[in-house]
Design goal:
This protein starts with a helix and ends in a 23-residue tail after the last helix. The chain is globular and about 60 Å long. Helix 1 crosses helix 2. The strands form four sheets. The chain has a five-stranded antiparallel beta sheet, with helices on both faces. Strands 1-2-3-4 form a four-stranded antiparallel beta sheet, sandwiched between helices. It has a three-stranded antiparallel beta sheet with strand order 7-9-8. It has 458 residues and is α+β, with helices and mostly antiparallel strands. Helix content is 33%, strand content 15%. The protein is built from 14 helices and 14 strands. Strand 10 and strand 11 form a beta hairpin.
Length: 458
């Protein structure tokens, strides 16, 4: 009886929400079949409790309903430019009638190039083939897309069956690194004050004695804000799970977390910080409509990313911690943009020094983390050795974006790897880096990327 009560009180709401959200994004954003979305994106190597959740897909209204034996129903609704949002029955119609007007973004494909003669083609091909294969009889690696850019051009890519160059795939916490870029774009455009300014959160400003008023933008970007937050994904009652799957607003939940340490003193990975930054971005722009256009006008349009989307909570705030989907090549553009120091097509789009700051260790992070970019791979020993200047955007289920400036190299790997032993990112990145020679000193970066190109696999 206790187990049944626990299921309906704690597990069923999370399971239904997770099922509805994952299936909605997989079906209506990634354009996968309903059967594959359930089999892979929800159930594969996941918590067995999810098998007790029933999902109903409404293709006509672009919604997914999920419930546990008729109880704890959660609905995810799809909206153009905003992807999928968890809602209630009462909210669904209103949400789907509220869609931002976004001007069409021109397609600008990355250029492709033949494999340079100084790159070990056999070694590179072997590494990519192994990454796409399965280590055993039961699929567990589930690599879906790999793209390798050298000197700004695609030199190799691989895709799983049914996944193409045009398939947007979730980056999970790689979204955090994109929010660093969005804040940098806002700073460059004069919308964001300096990073040492206290964050503009109305709930905090309304209480002058609130200690959270001392938290700066830089504190949040470096994960040193000092707010209490439980990042335990295994626990359905943890802050991160509750924030993403049971609360009407991820941003509001994160903003309400209490102060635990003085800002700048303790480094602790905290997904809530990005959603607080998302709320501050909304406050700085002055309107929801202008705020929801920000990713498109400040980043997606300049880089020619016409399939990328950042999803929102039910109150309209982008879930910056977790919910961006983009094609593998678009994720590659994000890395290339940073490798080029925030310059695109000869135009500076990020403040000078922004990339250097983001990829320099925060004082309390002991060399592990910069400003919403990883400087080391967490949870792994130091062997084999990755080039010292490498930095990373990393996400749940094995998502990764690796930038190695000394190699002029950007590596994207997207998949559904829930068993960490099935795919070792350090081995993968080190192997590719070893196959590519170091950049020649003073060699210019590519003048720039996109002209029309054949998007076929290499």
């Amino acid at each position: 009886m206790l187990a049944i009560s626990a299921f309906f009180i704690w597990l069923a709401p999370v399971g239904a929400a997770y099922t509805a959200k994952m299936m909605c994004s997989a079906i209506f954003v990634s354009r996968l079949s309903s059967e594959r979305a359930l089999r892979e994106d929800v159930l594969a190597d996941n918590n067995p409790v999810l098998s007790l959740i029933t999902a109903n897909v409404d293709l006509r209204h672009q919604r997914v309903h999920a419930h546990a034996f008729g109880f704890r129903t959660r609905i995810a609704v799809y909206r153009p430019h905003l992807g999928c949002t968890l809602s209630t029955r009462e909210q669904a119609d209103a949400l789907q009638n509220n869609v931002p007007v976004i001007r069409q973004i021109a397609t600008e494909p990355l250029q492709t190039a033949s494999l340079p003669q100084n790159i070990d083609g056999k070694k590179l091909n072997d590494i990519l083939s192994d990454a796409m294969d399965e280590p055993g009889s039961h699929p567990s690696r589930r690599s879906r897309a790999i793209v390798v850019l050298h000197q700004g051009k695609v030199i190799a890519e691989r895709y799983d069956d049914g996944i193409t160059v045009n398939t947007p795939l979730p980056g999970w916490s790689m979204t955090k690194s994109v929010f660093n870029i969005l804040l940098g774009r806002m700073r460059h455009e004069g919308i964001l004050p300096s990073l040492d300014t206290p964050v503009l959160i109305n709930e905090w400003r309304g209480q002058p004695a609130d200690p959270r008023n001392a938290i700066t933008y830089d504190n949040l970007l470096s994960m040193t804000g000092g707010l209490a937050f439980d990042e335990s994904y295994w626990n359905p009652l943890s802050d991160v799970v509750q924030m993403l799957f049971t609360q009407p607003s991820a941003a509001a939940f994160a903003v309400a977390r209490p102060q635990e340490h003085a800002p700048g003193t303790i480094w602790a990975y905290n997904s809530g910080t990005t959603n607080i930054l998302s709320a501050a971005m909304r406050n700085l722009t002055g309107s929801t409509a202008a705020y929801q256009r920000l990713p498109y006008e400040l980043l997606f349009r300049p880089l020619g990313m016409n399939r990328a989307v950042i999803e929102t909570d039910s109150e309209g705030y982008f879930v910056g911690s977790s919910y961006m989907l983009a094609t593998a090549r678009e994720w590659g553009k994000i890395g290339q943009f940073f490798l080029q120091d925030g310059i695109w097509e000869g135009q500076r789009l990020l403040p000078e020094g922004w990339v250097a700051h983001a990829t320099t260790s925060a004082p309390a992070a002991n060399g592990v983390y910069g400003a919403h970019w990883w400087l080391q791979l967490p949870g792994a020993d130091a062997t084999p050795q990755i080039p010292d200047d490498a930095y990373f955007a990393l996400g749940h289920d094995g998502q990764s974006l690796t930038v190695i400036p000394s190699k002029d190299l950007v590596i994207v790997r997207l998949g559904l790897t829930r068993n960490r032993e099935s795919f070792v990112l350090r081995d993968f990145v080190t192997g590719i880096a070893a196959a590519v020679p170091d950049r020649v000193e003073n060699e210019n970066l590519p003048a720039d990327i996109p002209q029309d190109a054949d998007p076929s696999q290499n």
